[in-house]
Amino acid sequence: MLRKLTETVVRFPKTTIAVFLAATVFFAVQFPKIKIDTDPENMLEQKQPDRVFYDKVKKEFGIHDLLVVGIVDERGIFDPETLRRIAKVTDSILQIKGVIIEDVVSLRTSDNVTSQDGTLVVRRFMEEIPESPGAIEFLKKAVYGNPFFVDKIISRDGKATSIYIPIEQKDQSYRISKEIEAILKKELIPQQKYYLAGLPVAEDTFGHEMFVQMGVTAPMAGFFIMILLFLIFRMGVAVVPPMLDAMLSVIWTMGLLIGTGHTVHIMSSMIPIFLMPIALLDDIHILSGFFDRYLITKDKRKAIIDTMKDLYRPMFFTSITSAVGFGSLALADIPPVRVFGLFVAFGIMAAWLFTHTMVPAIIMLMNEEKLSAFLEKRQKRISSRDKILKAFGRFSFYRSKAILWTSLAVLVIGIVGIYRIRVNDNPVKWFKPDHKIRIADNVMNRFFGGTYMAYLVVEGDKEDTIKRPEVMSYLDGLQSRLESLEIVGKTSSVADIVKRINYVLHNEDKVFDTVPQGREEIGQYLFLFSMTGDPNDLDNFLDYGSQKANIWIQMKGGDNIQMRRVEDSTDDFINKNPPPPGIVIRWSGLTYINKVWQSLMVWGMLKAVLGSFLIVFFLMVWEFRSLRLGIISMLPLSIAIISSYGLVGLTGKEYDMPIAVCSALSLGMAIDFAIHYLQRFKAAYRELKSLEAAHSFMAGEPYRAILGNAIVISLGFLPLITSTLTPYVTVGTFFAILMVFSTLATLILLPAMMRLWGESLFKRED
Amino acid sequence: MKIIKIFIVALFLIFGPKFVFAQGELSANDIIAKSRLSFYYAGDDMRAKVLMELINKNGQKRVRELTMLRKDYAQGGNQKYFMYFHRPADVKDTAFMVYKYPDKDDDRWLFIPAISLVKRIAANDKYSSFVGSDFTYEDVSGRKPEEDTHTLLRKEILNGTDCYVIESIPKGASEYTKRISWIAAMDFLPLKEEFYDKQNELYRQFEAQEIESLNGIPTITKRVMKNTKTGHRSEATFQEVEYNLGIGDDTFSERYLRKAPVQWIK
Predict the structure, then answer these.
(1) Mind listing the pLDDT tens digit for each residue in A627-647?
(2) Is A46 contained in some domain?
(3) Helix axis angle, A199-212 relative to A436-447, nearest 10°?
(4) Which CATH number is A155's domain given?
(5) Which of A549, A540, A541 is nearest to A459 (CA)?
(6) In whole numbers, what is the pLDDT of chain A averaged over residues?
(7) What is the pLDDT of residue B22?
């Protein structure tokens, strides 16, 4: 059937090209509909329980997306001039549309509750700018005297202050942050550094970088691959079919993705870069074979049909295995990963289609005279590359035993390395360390209680449960345990508010800096608090029916490992100090959510890898009609994968989202070399009836094609290293390493095995 | 109420719009001053049971029930307020007393029964919430007309009542940057107020929903303050309103804070 297709295409090359280009236009017009999604919550299913709970928590406790401005003055901020500027900045920020005025927390806008000469005083920290030294001292005393705000709006060393700016809508964050930046630029002097942090800022920046990624890095990678192709074939026109194949498959895939209403997430933004090198792999085999044959037959039509005939099976199997490898990501519980996997799989099969249509059609249109002139010239040069290939072939064939033992050793080292793998991730670290987001994050975490938020939600079985003294004390106890952890910078809850009121009502007597032990007292203190500020001041910490409390935990790090340690320590506390009856405690918050999807990722990927391993294995057994060949074909990639991951473990690189994703798809790619090798070897052995002769043949054109593939695919991912986002860098580096390992394993291990067992493997079939 | 409305409409139909505002050209300042007197200084003293419902945007409710006493010392001058809380249960017996001076900060005292403590409180009444509601202290006890610059924007009929629409811009620092009031031409009660925030957006909206004439004094018996940005609203219903009871000066003392004056509060 495929043969008929080839014949038709070769007969009507122009029509074929026209039809496919027309179809491509249809996919390309979808592009303007692109929607970027940078919300880390979307890593979880809409209905995933932790996400549902997080949404509920945000709604019930009136939690909005937050921008955080940090202002640092090394000379200290307690100076009338500096304070005036800070006040001006804050006042201007309040005027930005979309900012929730009454919820802004800062020196200028937050209420302080103190006791002065027996009077309970509720005043903003900085209603007026303190001018005299006495007034400055007074402000200092007020701020540092209220533990609720230390490490939050003021650093302990007095050099930094921050402004927390909740916003109504996340999609306004870009405009608002730009307006804030303009204000900061205008009002502050150069000695006063400012930092803009907060999830919405990070997300916007990330979205922007993703566009850059797709608009700059992907074309760059394309150009780079073009150069590689030119170096392999040393002929300009040879670059056209594979490049066109790659471009069309990218356009079709992204067009379909956007056209079907999918958002472009961090994962799917990588699709072009993944597809390009993969799409043109088969074309290299076709061109390589075609050039060799054309030299002999001088008949383009016949050369193409003959070349294609040999390649139908390996090309189909390499494509289908790669598609299965990526498609296996559909087993993951993470929607963006699923979308990524399925669409790359589509792209690979689209590329396979182009390989059978566009590519031969373009070859048919090549100028014959130039072609043969060039090829003859090329043949006269016996390239040094071919010599190396021959030597390399001899080595792998004749040192078979040593090679097998070495492989075994590599395998063992790899497994040892895998045992040392540390699973960890932190989306903020997706920015490179010198990125301004990372810098802001570092500075803010040095001066303040921490920018990574987690929530511990304490829920009672009926209304007013939280007002019970034993529950309130329990909150306080939990917070003490949490604050004893190094990573936790600050915790805040309704218990802090009750303690503060108790302390202030008793003329700031330290003895009363505790949770009162009467139910009425707590109720009346909270009532008093509600009379001092806004009606929604308590909302973030206590729900409307006083049935649930929310402890805010600010952490100085957002690594999953750090989150897990905080969780473990909390569990330990809860086990040793069981909460009052009827109380349920549950984690939430973005740092926790990140941890959740990451564990899903680890297990999901493992599932995907094992799943695709099995499918590819069955495909191989079917393809070679031999269980033993099936096993042998899986060996090089197993070694490559195990040693790559061993390397991850041994170098101490953390197993994060990008590494996890690589695992599933590396499989489908690494098998390609083995398929081509074994298919070609089998055919050669049948023809030449000698292992040595077959091997010698293999060390020529097939090695060249396989090596060409290996070079394109391992170097083709390298432009990713220039990206400003670390997931791209990781994927680029890891893939290059994996492909090198996989090529080496194929070209060294398989010949060695062929020498040892080739005869028995292939003989039985004859 | 209904009769008044019908009467107004009838007058309007008979004499046309010119008649309604025929009581001489009042300035915006006059209107605001009159409005303050009729809203915050009605009678020489007053007692009311206030039921306050605080409702968040999800429709969840919190209830506050209190008895309020008020005594005026001069029209537009000093006042004393006494508030005794009946509900919620855990704040029963809590009492609150305010001495209001138009020209300086109020004096306020709170009695906290759980620890049997009377505490003096100093807070900014411009923005601090009245018992956790959307009303500020200022909304409950008034604001000096001189603090804003008033402009009469237009005359308008609101729900069948002729109103002056007045824009007030604060002269000093304030929570709002602009207030628009609809003040009834007939009795100078504020029927509606809109508060604009620093972003020049509407954020709070006051509405007088029910008005009754009690002891011959037009009284807003149901008022609602809604925060249009958060969706939170507070509905205050004034029940058992009585004026000119002759509440004694000694009622407004620490002694009665600790033990509610049974004569007025049951």
Answers:
(1) 888 898 888 888 888 888 888
(2) no
(3) 160
(4) 3.30.70
(5) A549
(6) 86
(7) 46
The verdict on a CB contact (< 8 Å) between B58 and A544 is yes
* Domain span including residue A561: 439-588
- Do the domain assignments include residue A510? yes
Residue A665 — very low, low, confident or very high, per pLDDT cuts 50/70/90?
low
* B215 reaches A (C-beta below 8 A): no
Structure tokens at B106: 């109020």
Tell me the average pLDDT across A44-70. Answer: 88
**Mean pLDDT over residues B196-224, rounded?**
92
Q: How far is B254 from chain A (nearest CA, A)?
A: 15
Whether the CB of B119 is below 8 Å from some CB of chain A: the reply is: yes
Query: For residue A381, what pLDDT is reported?
Result: 62
Say which DSSP state B266 is in: -
B173: chain A residues, CB-CB within 8 Å:
127
Decide if A711 contacts A685 (C-beta within 8 A).
Answer: no
Q: For strand A452-459 and strand B202-214, is the pairing parallel, antiparallel, or unpaired?
A: unpaired
Rounded distance between C-alpha atoms, residue B241 and residue B47, angstroms: 6
Boundary of a domain, candidates A177, A197, A217: A197
Q: Do B115 and A505 touch (CB under 8 A)?
A: yes
- Put simply, the answer to whether A527 touches B90 (Cβ < 8 Å) is yes
Between B2 and B83, residue with greater pLDDT: B83
- From chain B, pick out residues whose CB is under 8 angstroms from the CB of A525: 112
How far apart are alpha carbons B183 and B21 in whole angstroms? 12
> How much is the pTM?
0.83
pLDDT band at residue A737 using 50, 70 and 90 as cut-offs: confident
Q: Considering only alpha carbons, which residue of chain B is nearest residue A94?
A: B198
Same domain, A549 and A639: no
**What Rg do the C-alpha atoms of chain B give, in angstroms?**
19
**Helix (H) / strand (E) containing A459:** strand A452-459
Domains identified in chain B and CATH numbers:
2-258 (2.50.20.10)
A and B: number of Cβ contacts within 8 A: 115
CA dist A231 and A223 (Å) reads: 13
Which residue would you say has higher pLDDT here, A761 or A19?
A19
Does residue B259 belong to the interface with chain A, where contact is any CB pair within 8 Å?
Answer: no
Handedness of CA A47, A48, A51, A57 (dihedral sign): positive
> In angstroms, what is the C-alpha Rg of chain A?
32
SS3 A379: helix
Q: Which helix (H) or strand (E) holds A5?
A: helix A2-11
Buried b (16+ CB within 10 A) or exposed e, B95-133: bbbbebebeeebebbbbbbbbeeebbbbbbbbbbbbbbb
Q: Which residues of A touch B (CB under 8 A)?
A: 59, 62, 91, 94-97, 99-102, 111, 116, 118-124, 127, 168, 464, 467, 505, 516, 518-525, 527-528, 530-536, 544-545
Beta bridge partners of B67: B49, B84
- Domain count within chain A: 3
- pLDDT tens-digit series, residues A346-385: 999 999 999 988 888 888 888 777 777 777 777 666 566 6
Residue A730 to residue A670: CA distance in whole angstroms: 18
Chain B residues close to A95, C-beta within 8 Å = 198-199
A304 plus A171 within the same structural domain: no
Q: Which residue has the higher pLDDT, B208 or A731?
A: B208
Give the gap in angstroms from C-alpha B39 to the nearest C-alpha of chain A. 23
Residue B196, pLDDT score = 95
* A113-132: pLDDT as tens digits: 888 888 888 888 998 889 89
- Residues whose CB falls within 8 Å of the CB of residue A360, separated by 6 or more in sequence, listed in order: A6, A9, A10, A13, A286, A304, A308
Q: Is the CB of residue B201 less than 8 Å away from at least one CB of chain A?
A: yes
A703: pLDDT confidence band, cut at 50, 70 and 90?
A: confident
Residue-wise pLDDT for A290-338, tens only, equals: 888 888 888 888 888 888 888 888 889 889 988 888 888 887 888 888 8
Are residues A582 and A480 part of one domain? yes
